[in-house]
Every structure is written in C-alpha cells, then in structure tokens.
Amino acid sequence: MSKKTMLIKNANIVNEGTIFNGDILIEGEYIKEISSSISAKSADVHVFDAEGKYVLPGAIDDQVHFREPGLTHKANIETESKAAIAGGITSFIEMPNTNPQSTTIEKLEEKFDIAAKTSSANYSFMFGGTNDNLDEILKVDEKNVAGLKLFLGSSTGNMLVDDLDVLEKIFKSTNMVISLHCEDEATIKKNFKEHLDKYGDDIPVKYHPVIRSEEACYLSSSKAIELAKKTGARIHVFHLSTAKETSLFSNKIPLKDKKITSEVCVHHLWFTDQDYEEKGTFIKWNPAVKSQKDKDGLWDALLDDRIDVIATDHAPHTLEEKQNVYTKAPSGGPLVQHALPAMLEMHHKGKISIEKVVEKMCHNPAILFQVEKRGYVKEGYFADLVLVDLNNPWTVNKDNILYKCGWSPFEGATFKSRITHTFVNGSLAYKNFKFYDVNAAKRLTFNR
After folding, report:
1. 302 vs 346: CA distance, rounded Å
2. Three-state SS across 47-66?
3. pLDDT per position as a tens digit, 34-46
4. Which family does the UniProt entry place this protein in (predicted)?
C-alpha cells in the first residue's frame, strides 16, 4: 500500500521565530517538503487549503497526570489524550504517581502498553524515583523513556524523596533529565498545622498560598539547584510559582547547553490569589497559585528565557472530589484542552508573540528532553501539526469540555483562537470538535 500524501496549501507557518506563508507536503508520517508554493504531482495527493490559518508544530506537554492505571474514575489515557489533541498538544510526558506507581521497569512498561492501545497523542512516561529504588533507576533505557521524576514535596504514596544521601546518589548516577517538584515539606506541614488549629478542616482556600508558601518553594528549589551544581546533575524544575524562584535560573546560555532548567504552568500565568474568591478549590494546585507580583515575575522570566517551557500539569479530579472542604479537596485540575488557546489569548492581549508560544510549548520541550523529530515544522520531521484560526471565538462550557471529569477551571472563558485541525504523524486526528484517525500515535523516542 502506498504512503498517503497530503498537501497543505496557503498556511501561515510558525516555526523557529518566523511566520511565513507557504505549503507543506506530507508523505506518510513525515513532512516531505516545505516551500512557498508546492503543486500536487498526482491525482492521489489530497490537497487541503488552510485558508491562511496558522500552522504550528504540535505542542509537547512535558507534565501531565492521566491517572491510568488505578485512578481511572478521574481520567484515563484514552480520554485525556483526546482532549490533548483537541487542544493542539500532540505529544505528552506523563507522571509516575499513578496506582501502582511507575517505580519499577515492569510497571513503567505496563503504562506504555496501555498507551500503545489507547492514546491519541504521542506518548512517553517518566520513571519515578523513591528513597529505595536506585537499582531500578539504573536499568532505565534513556533512549526510550522521557526522564526521571522526583517529588521533593507533595508526593503520593512512597514517592517523597526526603533522604538527602539518596538524593545525592540519584543526582550522581543518571544522565537523564531529572524533573523535580520542589516544595519544602517541613515548612508546609508547619503552616498547615497553624491553619488547621485555627479553622479546622474548612480552611478558607485563600490561605492555600500561605500554607504552600513562597518560602516552601524557594527553600526546596534553591537546595535542589545547589545539589545539582555540586553533582553535575541535569535537573528541570517543574511548575515555578513564585517570582523569587526565577532568580535561581539563567538565560546566559542556549537551552541545549543548560544543566538547570525550569517550567511554568498555564494556571500560574493566568490566575492569581484574587481568583480564589470566585474559583475556590477549582484553582487549588500544588504549588499554589500566588500573588499578582508572582504572576508578573513568572511572565518576566518566561519572556527573557530564564523559564524555558510552558506546560499544563494536567491533573484531573472529579467534580465531587474538588467540591470538598479545603483539607479534603485534592489539588490539581484539567488543562490540556485549553492550554494553547489560553496562551494564544495572552497573545491577543499583547503579552506574548505566537512565535514565543511555539518556542515555549513546542521547540523547547523537544530540545530539553531531546525528543526525536518533533516540536518543529521541518522537512524530515514527523507531521505533528496544529491549524489555528486566530479569529474564531468560542466559550468553554460543559458541552465542549472533553475531559473525563467534565469540568474546567476555564469554564465561562471565551477564547478568540480556535484549534480547527490536529494532525498526528501525518494523520488527521481532530477537526472542529470531532475525532478522526485517533490510532496514529507513537511512543516518543529520544536522541540521546
């Protein structure tokens, strides 16, 4: 059977800091040619007119929780990967704190097997570190696994790595990117006890950023960076939430040469502590959404390249779970369907260029994790492409939310930009709230 061939005409292609009008020839899974004008060489080429829409590389989300196995009442790989491609995210890296946890090679491969059968987006998984699984960490094949995830605060099960000797050994023993959740557990416990003694279980949610404070974040991040400098480890600090932490990171060298990198999530760029009154526990995340000053500091660091990546930390819980009182309402929320539209909304507000959105959501995750042949609109690369209409407003509501949990912190928000088509490995997987070829996804590989 011959490879399917598709020609996308009249597209505003966004890639590597430029936007240019041109055509893209896709042959099979790959981009064959990009040029200002390409003509179809035969009748069996499917010609698709982009009508001047923007064509972006598919986004790569380096931090999601898709809840499978073990927590599938909240979400699963099938439902959330569909929501992801509807949001222009064509590849994801999922976290190890499922049930059972991905802290052995056997459990990790079980997740890869599930994704091979059910994922609509390209996939990889992080291996989880604990205080006592160094032997398993050393068995991980770094060409086929995204990286290592360590919780230095706010973990589930036995995944809190709080033994400093173990942490140093892990830092010294792997070449993989070590992704970190940095919040100081002792500081949080002390703050939590003070508020629990005062309010009982029904702590007003506005105190969440007081409990999970700037101090807790900075203390943990700065210690991790100090250890990374001592050991030469390659670390990536997830979901920065404070302006203070941004001073720990540098923009002096290119991303590919950095040993210490960072990420910011969409919710920390969008919400502030002023939103707790309206949104309540629906914007309860760890680390917490903090002040306007923190949000401004995160934007500054993102735009001057101290922060390298925009991600989601997509972490769905059921509506029922989120509506509990503070101490019983879990932290986290679903974001993959709305992250790119939200960032494009920030473009409309003059906050960020489309080229910069693409850099932070597509190019940089590919560079940072050395993802093979993805994250760019380039000849020879996989045809993971997203078509965006920048002027086609839509409002987030229950009828168009695709997460299994059925809610979104963005409910009621109107986005000017609409993702109209998503191609995964050259196949049309999504078009205007309908799914098509959702079996084209592949396991990510890494050029290491």
Report:
1. 13
2. EEECCCCEEEECEEEEEECC
3. 999 999 888 889 9
4. Belongs to the metallo-dependent hydrolases superfamily. DHOase family. Class I DHOase subfamily.
* Residue with the two structure tokens 């091979």: 116
Strand 418-424 and strand 427-431: the pairing is antiparallel
Structure tokens at 319: 């509506």
Task: Name beta bridge partners: 262.
Answer: 237
Task: Tell which residue, 413, 433, 434, has the closest CA to residue 339.
Answer: 413
Average of pLDDT values for 295-324?
98
Half-sphere exposure for 383 (CA within 13 Å, toward CB): 26
The 10 Å Cβ neighbour count of residue 70 is 12
Q: Which two tokens stand for residue 352?
A: 């960020």
pLDDT at 154 over 80: no
Q: What rounded mean pLDDT belongs to the chain?
A: 96
Q: Is the omega angle on the peptide bond into residue 287 within 30 degrees of 0, that is, cis?
A: yes
| Average of per-residue pLDDT across 320-334 | 98
Q: Provide the residue type at 8 as one letter.
A: I
For residue 201, which phi and psi values (nearest 5 degrees)? -65, -30
> Would the pLDDT of 2 be above 80?
no
Residues carrying an active site annotation: 313
> What domains sit in the chain, N to C, each tagged with a CATH number?
58-369 (3.20.20.140)
CA 148 to chain centre: 15
CA distances from 259 to 74, 151, 171, 237 (A): 35, 19, 12, 11
Q: Show the tokens assigned to 25.
A: 């020839």
Token pair 């928000």: residue: 413
What is the per-residue pLDDT for 158?
75
Whole-angstrom distance between the N-terminal and C-terminal Cα of the chain? 33
User: Whole-prediction pTM value?
Assistant: 0.97
Distance from C-alpha of 244 to C-alpha of 294, rounded to nearest angstrom: 8
Peptide bond into 365 cis (omega under 30): no
